[in-house]
Structures are given as structure tokens and as C-alpha cells.
Design a protein that fits this description.
Radius of gyration: 18 Å
Strand content: 15-25%
CATH topology: Rossmann fold
Low-confidence stretches: 1-17, 189-196
Shape: globular
CATH class: Alpha Beta
Distance between the termini: 35 Å
Number of domains: 1
Mean pLDDT: 83
Structural class: alpha+beta
Order of helices and strands: EEEHHHHEEEHEHE
Number of helices: 6
Length: 196
């Protein structure tokens, strides 16, 4: 018989050692300039008023886990990049090096893959994780500069690229997602979808 005050046991997928998301960090993602979210390995419940950002957090986690550029592009960079970040850029001199970036970072626990471990994250933390980012393409710097000079209101969304990297600096896509397939199902069961 379980103790009344004990937490439910997390069930790890076969072949995994209790993988979980320790925390997520959303940067310039939709309504959030910087939103850290701590997650419990067993159960996380997101509670808040309408438009508080619960769905935004779940979307960020889903996109980062998916490793799918097409999924991000189907939503649109212009929908994911925080509108305030674009406004701040337009009001601060519109320098190409100041173009805002979107990022969602997932800080993971219960894994031992060296490819997922490193410091390539906003916190500079030596840990396991995944990072999705949307940033201006280095291949189109001259086109971006031209666009920024040609109009005071034009923004180079079409020159942004979607990148998926582990904290070890390695790119990932569906290959890593295959490693995470069972893991993804497990992770998403740690998030309880809220009732409106």
C-alpha cells in the first residue's frame, strides 16, 4: 500500500532511464520575452487564466521536441516571434546585429547521451538538453540589410531560419526525435492539459 503523502512513480519508457524535462525556457516566443518553466518529472499541471500562456508553453515544448522545421514554418516565424521584440527592434535603430531571435530550450534529466550534453544554451549551464531557435540566416545578410534600409517598417521574417541543436551543439531532427519517440509520449504525459 502506497503512503498517502508519496508521489506517484514516473514510468519510464522501455530502454530509457527515467527521462524527463526538468525545465523549459522560452525566449521571445509568442507573448513571452523570457519565460522559465520548471517541470516536475512526475506531473506538471499548468493552471492560469485565459490568455495566460498555458497553450504557448505547451506549443513551445512540442515544437522543440518535434525537431520539425516544417511544423515551425507552418505556424510561421511571424506568429512565433514576440511582437514586442519586433517593436523594440524597430525603435532601437534597426541594426542587423540587433535582430531578435526566438528560442525554446528544454533542459532534460534522466539521460546519458553525450550528444545531448553541453553548454549551448542561454543559461550556459552544463547539462542535457535541446534547443529550437529561429534566427536571421547568415546566408542572406546582404538581402536583410537591403530590406532594413529600404523601409522603416519592413521586417525580414522571410530570411529567418529554424534550427534545432542539442546542448552539445549537434543538430537534431527526426533522427533524435526517434530516440525521443517513446520519450516524447512519456514527456507529454507529464503535462496535464488544462480545462478552460
Amino acid at each position: 500500500m502506497a503512503r498517502k503523502d508519496s508521489k506517484p512513480e514516473a514510468i519510464a519508457p522501455q530502454g530509457c532511464v527515467d527521462p524527463y524535462i526538468r525545465s523549459a525556457l522560452l525566449l521571445n516566443f509568442k507573448k513571452f520575452a523570457k519565460k522559465p518553466v520548471d517541470l516536475d518529472p512526475r506531473l506538471t499541471i499548468l493552471i492560469g487564466d485565459n490568455e495566460a500562456g498555458k497553450s504557448t508553453i505547451l506549443l513551445g515544448v512540442d515544437l522543440a521536441i518535434s525537431g520539425s522545421r516544417s511544423k515551425v514554418e507552418a505556424i510561421g516565424i511571424e506568429s512565433l516571434l514576440r511582437k514586442g521584440a519586433v517593436q523594440e527592434f524597430n525603435e532601437s535603430g534597426r541594426k542587423i546585429e540587433a535582430l531578435p531571435r526566438v528560442a525554446v530550450e528544454l533542459y532534460l534529466g534522466g539521460l546519458d547521451s553525450p550528444d545531448l550534453h553541453g553548454r549551448a544554451n542561454a543559461r550556459g549551464e552544463s547539462t542535457f538538453g535541446l534547443r529550437m531557435s529561429c534566427e536571421p540566416s547568415e546566408d542572406y545578410q546582404s538581402e536583410i540589410a537591403q530590406l532594413l534600409e529600404s523601409s522603416e517598417s519592413a521586417f525580414p521574417f522571410e530570411f529567418y531560419v529554424v534550427k534545432f541543436h542539442t546542448f552539445g551543439g549537434y543538430p537534431y531532427s527526426f533522427l533524435i526525435a526517434c530516440l525521443l519517440t517513446r520519450f516524447k509520449t512519456f514527456l507529454l504525459t507529464t503535462l496535464i492539459f488544462f480545462l478552460n
